[in-house]
Amino acid sequence: MVYGFSINIGSVMEGLLLTYILIFAFSSGGHCWECPNNTRVFTDVGQRPVLPFTTEVLHTKVSENDAFVVATYNGISLLKIYYVDGDMLVDIHYTSGLSIVSSANLENGLLDIELDTVQTDVSGTYILTHNFGFRVIQCVTLYLLGRPTTPTVTSSGNLYEGTSLNLYCRSTSTTTPSNHSLSMRYSWTRDGSRITADNKYSFDSNRQATLTVSKISRTEDNNRVMGCIATETDGKTSDATFFRINVQYGPEDIRFNTSGNSLTYKDGDAFTPVRCLADCQPVCNISWSRGDTLVSSTAVLNLDVLKWKDGKRDIYICTASHMVKDRTLQEKLKVSVIFWNSVGIYHTFLLNNVDHDGPDDVFLSVPNVHTVTEGETVSRIYCSVDCWPACVFTWINVTNGEPISNSEALAFGTVSRYDAGIYKCLVRNFAASQFSREARNQFSLRVQYGPDDVTLSVPNVHTVTEGDTVSRIYCSVDCWPACVFTWINVTNSEPISNSETLAFGTVSRYDAGIYKCLVRNSAAPKFSREADHQFSLRVQCKPSPPTDLTLTTLDNVVTFQWKRGFNGGLEQTFSLQTAINSDGSWMNTTEILESESKYILENGRFQVTLTNLDPEIYQARLVAFNILGAAEPVAFKESFQIMELNKEFSADRSVGPVIGGTVGGIAVALVVVIVLVVIIRRKYACDCACSFKLAKKEDLCENTNVEKKIETRGADNPEYNAAQTYEEVSMRSEPAVYDDLRNGNNGPDNMHVYTSLDESSSKSNVYYENVKKDDPVYHNAMLKNP
Questions:
Q1: In this structure, how many other beta carbons lie within 10 angstroms of the beta carbon of residue 479?
Q2: What is the DSSP annotation of 400-465?
Q3: Which of 114, 200, 251, 762 has the fewest CB atoms within 10 Å around its CB?
């Protein structure tokens, strides 16, 4: 779109000259600003990004002279547009390196600009300001997408066969500015083929930063190359990095380079060296021992020349130990020396031509510390020794001193944690009464178990108040050996503590979430077992302010709408407050609970309607609060006016209520008069001798003449009583006095029997002093005294 304008700006430019100078001066200097809203735009090197700026000030014509400036965050002006009385001036100033896009509409406030080919120094926040830069209207942050760094891959534990392997891939974003909130996702390959989750491979979360390979084996996983690539959301992909799996195993198949496990030499023969072999990856450490004495630290056993009396005849043990795993395997080699005497040939267990020997050294088929796992079936443990004649075996549980077996073999079957302890094999030789000898050997049985049930020191839903100091949360479990603890924030899958306790200190609303205590046995991966328990931390706090406030008025009815904010974990109340512009003091107009569904629209917004406000110009605001406190008040942007209704229309509409009020007043007056008459009549009594004579109850029938009383009780009588006057009138026997009234007319002589109370007549006040002129009951009708 090409913009062209024709306007006589001679006098206008004179008025705006100073404005332009101030605008240029301000736009070129540094200043502080805050974005009311921010639009995010992502781009790449070589692209031409569009920055969408929009303003509504142009439509409202708030001021006669308007100036709008698009600038970088540090004050460098990119575009300046000037308006007079809402009309755009012909001169538009913008720097090189940008253009106004075809979708822009400068007259209507659509100030979209396009940057030239992007280089590496354009990322940051751009702002649109109004009139001298004192008000920021809009911000647009331009992000320059970068390629993630080449990931690093690390593993946990060792790579021993049968265990699970965890591989961790990590990369860093290079997109600028760094507050882009783009997430990083990872993908894995095996020998170049994409890995998907199945029984063999699993991932920690959707980000797939951690790959778990279950039960690695030398046949399936050895020398496999695992690759990892990082990709930023809506962004770029990194180079690949690789990790080779070298599966460890052994020792297995321990053996000798001889024809068997027993060698026999003649006295004085030279010993042929024996090599001990075992399958291991990496290579195992191999040594030879006799009893507790180390004979050779290599795989070769060499005893030189053998003499039957030199003590070399014995059982030698080859031990193969894995260099990484705490695992060993042993095999025994028996070396015998024979000699000749008059009796014959004897083996090493014969001493000095006697008929009994041993026991000497007791050997066990397990190491001194034998570690097993709870629930597995343990092979029989054998106790062996050289004896002549055969020895007697006794297995003893050293923990409680009880014998448990009289065989050379000790059987546990399926082992449990309660089988752990020290066990001793006691061997005795009872060849003759004069010969008694015994020997012993023992081992410690350690049973790996746990974790089973994980318990926490807090309930599954733990509710606290923002600002409180939360006590440490403990994770407890039974394990042997001791377990390893990891606390994980389930919300972001990040580990936050490697201790059995979790500490928050002073808690805030941002600490709310789900936390999991993951417990692993420290013997892993040889003994791989884990358990977990999680709880939900709920942080109660003051509510957040409501948002998106709007109001509309129609026929003096005001409708308010808003969106609720976070209620702080507690039910919140909304207080709608109003203030008269001339007054400025706020009053609670109405309050509603968050749970009152009648105020909630289908779209979730709240709506309240006010109809009873007095004619004024009002401001309105909304306050959200719960039992912990209140959020900051949020004002409705617009004020509103309640108009006064048309007076003539009001008068017409008020005739009915006036007539109704008058009729009601008259009816009430008649009821009051009747009640008074009844009360007065009850104060008097008439006996049988005085028909129609009146007397107070204390003067009954004492020669009182009715006619005389009537004549003597007039307006001038000092004992005049209004109530008595009506009583006497009502008791008069001359019906002619009431004929005119009975006939429905006043008559010539009684035209003022009933007349309106004339406020200007002093006579009315004299005759009826007990009736006040402003009494609404008697205001329209007065009874004249005849």
A1: 21
A2: TTEEEESSSEE--EE--GGG-EEEEEEEEEEEETTEEEEEEEEEEEEEEB-----EESS-SEEEEE
A3: 762
Rounded to whole angstroms, the Cα distance separating 230 from 170 reads 8
Residue 666 has what pLDDT? 75
The CA-atom distances, in angstroms, between 441 and each of 292, 415, 426 are: 11, 21, 7
pLDDT of 192 = 92
Q: Closest Cα partner for 324 from 250, 252, 254?
A: 250
Q: Which residues of the chain have pLDDT under 50?
A: 1-31, 58-62, 340-355, 432, 647-655, 658, 683-786
Dihedral pair phi/psi, residue 305, rounded to 5°: -80, 135
pTM over 0.90, yes/no: no
pLDDT of amino acid 310: 57
Per-residue tokens: 596: 């009152």
Residue pair 695/704 in contact (Cβ under 8 Å)? The answer is yes
Name residue 193's beta-bridge partners: 190
Q: In which residue are the tokens 């008459």 written?
A: 677
DSSP string, 89-118: EEEEEE-TTEEE-TT-BGGGTB--EEESS-
Alpha carbon distance 414, 412 (integer Å):
6
Cα–Cα distances in Å, from 294 out to 283, 311, 317, 363, 729? 20, 15, 10, 15, 146
Q: What is the pLDDT of residues 247-274, one digit of tens each?
A: 988 898 999 998 788 887 877 788 889 9
Helix (H, G, I), strand (E, B) or coil at 495: strand
* Closest to 332 (Cα-Cα) out of 282, 295, 285: 295
Instruction: Please give the Cα distance from 469 to 336 (Å, whole number).
Output: 75
- Give the span between the Cα atoms of 630 and 607, in whole angstroms: 20
Q: Contacts by 33-36 with C-beta closer than 8 Å and gap 24+?
A: 33/127, 33/129, 33/133, 33/136, 34/136, 35/125, 35/127, 35/136, 35/138, 35/139, 36/136, 36/137, 36/138, 36/139
Q: Give the C-alpha distances (Å, rounded to integers) separating 139 from 34, 35, 107, 111, 142.
A: 9, 6, 20, 12, 10
| pLDDT digit string, tens, across residues 271-300 | 889 999 999 988 889 999 988 889 899 999
CA–chain centroid gap for 161, Å, is 41
Query: E strands within 97-248?
Result: 98-100, 113-115, 124-130, 135-144, 152-156, 165-170, 184-190, 193-194, 201-203, 210-213, 225-232, 241-244
CB atoms within 10 A of CB 300: 12
